UniProtKB/TrEMBL annotation:
This is Luciferase family oxidoreductase, group 1. To bacterial alkanal monooxygenase alpha and beta chains. GO terms for cellular component: cytosol. Residues 1-300 form the Luciferase-like domain. InterPro entries: Bact_Lucif_Oxidored, CmoO-like, Luciferase-like_dom, Luciferase-like_sf. Pfam families: Bac_luciferase. One of its GO terms (molecular function) is oxidoreductase activity, acting on paired donors, with incorporation or reduction of molecular oxygen.
């Protein structure tokens, strides 16, 4: 099984943002040593507790301190940006780190309405233009605009020897079909969707049209996972993440992810208890053998080529250990 890492660079309540970013590097290095295929960074804006507002800068840091693991965005929020600039950034990364760069594309705002307005003036209009933005980006990455196109005389320099691999990220039939139409690899965000993922993936596979000769469909699913030596320990670690989500929903949580002790002191009401129970349904929790079995079942139901794991907990070492335990079960002896 191919496994990868999705990192949001979470900041715990006992950390600075600098320390959180250094822990992101440590996680990427652990993933590389274990045989994880990719390390991707999310893009979030003005969200307390996350240090991942500028993925391309983090990727430069990660790429310079690793050597083999693929690195990329998960995702560049394309409606905020011009495709030409995105292509320049990721072509530069692909020049620095040959044959290692992925450029994942998404359409979400990545933050509050205020942060969205501060980033771009025409976000909603650009969401409607997403299909054309995607096509332009692909042409810039492939350096193959038709001769009669207005951009045919420019290139997103530097042009790397191996172009970044474009992925489209989404949680809906609409995003799956857009990926299929453009011959793009597709990542389904199972960890943040209640939609029927397997049927969406099936539609992607059936509609896939290669953009280049010999190209085949690629499917990756992203899941939330917390693994520990025992199921009890995994559930204990989970509490910090769940309470932080409740705090954020109430406009709190500005200090970052609470410790287990802080989370245990949180007093939730019956409505929040229902919310907690619902959140747990979308997270894979358990000891290494339990997590292994759930991931294998998930891969089969989605017909996925790869699974990307997202783990947000208070302790950076426990987070690395979660990936380590899973890697030892599914990668080391693969």
């Amino acid at each position: 099984m191919k496994l990868s890492i999705l990192d949001q660079s979470p900041i715990s309540s006992n950390q600075t943002a600098q320390e959180a970013l250094k822990d992101s590097l440590k996680l990427a290095q652990v993933g590389e040593a274990l045989g994880y295929s990719r390390y991707w960074v999310t893009e979030h804006h003005d969200l307390p507790g996350l240090a991942s507002s500028v993925p391309e800068v983090i990727l430069s840091y990660i790429g310079a301190n690793t050597s083999t693991i693929r690195i990329g965005s998960g995702a560049v929020l394309l409606p905020h940006y011009k495709p030409f600039k995105v292509a320049e950034i990721y072509n530069t990364l692909a020049t620095l780190f040959p044959n290692r760069i992925d450029v994942g594309i998404g359409r979400a705002p990545g933050g509050s309405a205020e942060a969205t307005n501060a980033l771009s003036d025409n976000y909603l209009q650009n969401v409607y233009k997403m299909p054309s933005l995607v096509k332009d980006l692909l042409h810039f990455l492939d350096d193959d605009f038709p001769a009669d196109h207005e951009y045919s005389k420019i290139s997103a320099s530097p042009i790397p020897l191996v172009a970044p691999v474009p992925w489209l990220l989404g949680t809906s039939k609409k995003s799956a079909l857009l990926a299929a139409e453009n011959g793009m690899a597709y990542t389904f965000g199972q960890f943040m969707s209640d939609n029927d993922g397997p049927s969406i993936i099936q539609e992607y596979l059936e509609a896939f049209t290669p953009r280049k000769q010999g190209q085949t469909a690629q499917v990756m699913i992203t899941v939330s996972v917390i693994c520990a030596e025992t199921t009890e320990k995994a559930n204990e670690l989970l509490l910090s993440s769940l309470i932080w989500e409740l705090q954020k929903a109430k406009g709190e949580g500005h200090k970052g992810i609470p410790s287990i002790e802080e989370a245990q002191q949180y007093k939730w009401d019956n409505r929040e208890k229902v919310t907690l129970d619902n959140m747990k349904k979308n997270i894979i929790i358990g000891n290494p053998q339990e997590v292994k079995e759930k991931l294998i079942d998930l891969q089969a139901s989605y017909k996925a080529d790869e699974i990307m794991l997202s783990t947000i907990i208070y302790s950076a070492e426990a987070r690395r250990n979660s990936y380590r335990l899973i890697g030892n079960e599914l990668l080391i002896n693969d």
